[in-house]
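User: My collaborator and I are trying to settle a disagreement about how two of our proteins should look. Neither of us wants to argue from intuition anymore, so we agreed to look at predicted structures for both before our next call. Could you fold the first one, then the second, and keep them clearly separated?

Assistant: That sounds like a sensible way to settle it. I'll keep them separate. The first protein:
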Amino acid sequence: MTDIVKILIVDDHRLIINGIRTMLEDVDDIEIVAEASNGDDAILRVREHPEIQVVLMDVKMPKKDGVEATRELMQEHTKLKIMALTMFEEDKYVSSMLQAGAIGYVLKHTSKSELIAAIRKVNEGEPYFSHDIARLVMTRYLTNMLPPSTVATRLGTDGGMELTDREAEILKLIASQLTNQEIAERLYISPRTVHSHRRNLMQKIGVKNTAGLVRYAIENGIV
């Protein structure tokens, strides 16, 4: 039997909450346990319902906003998974939510199928971002973490994304059947960083699993 994901919806607009309920009411493995209209209410609801696993958190709300609520919830409930569900796609909001502890960021105009997929992924502890947000996060990462010359070669004039030297190196090691731990030891980075690269590679290349990465590496002469 499939485990049911228990969720909390946090939004100050009743119309949004009702819309999400309608979208999810026929999904067998997702159950809306509670709802809240602001950050303070969200904290109370999680305390009242310790079975909650995933929180769909609006960003801008009265009293306590989504950023502060996320920060407090993550301090109190370290295993909780929080995903922003908002209309705001500016970098400042994305950065604030991620720094507060959210592991997902989805825009409110998302489709039903994407919202369901996002909830399932986040519940498994995997990051999930709407397409536009993923590109924003990746661009900011490149700008802040990589040398300017690398960023320039990565961001093409046509908007396409190419693999960095580091990504190509990790992809080659993945295709050589090394585990995340083995790759981390070889490159002197953390297994979590390797996992993030693996997920980013799958999203960028457009494959669903490691087999797809290996096939891409072979077809493009990386191994």
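The second protein, kept apart from the first:
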Amino acid sequence: MSEKLNTIIEQLKSLTLLEAAELVKEIETVFGVDTSISVASSGPVLAVAPVAEVVEEKTSFDVLLNEVPADKKIAILKIVRNVTGLGLKESKEIVDNVPKILKEGVTKEESESIKKEIEAAGGKVVIK
């Protein structure tokens, strides 16, 4: 055994029961191991528990008006006004200058609803 390991073993021998318990908790936390698993005859065994990556589900979406065919502008303009609550001039500016963010920070359901409505009128939408 290396000198480094011998030193660690000697330090472990000098720990109080409370310090040893704190060390075990810290090892579990830092290295993602579970020391509660035991084998019937040989005592506690360290088992590496896989650390699951936390993947947050996206809850806020941006709706980007990506394409507006020339012959569908009026129908899409009406939808844009309805969805955004903007006036005619502001809505026309969005429709005339695609790609443009139509709405930011909306729920998944609302973004899907807007996309269906725009696509039904002939436009193209990207949800980010």
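Some points you might bring to the call about the second protein. DSSP finds five helices and seven strands in the chain. Strands lie at 33-34, 38-39, 43-44, 47-48, 61-67, 100-106, 124-127.
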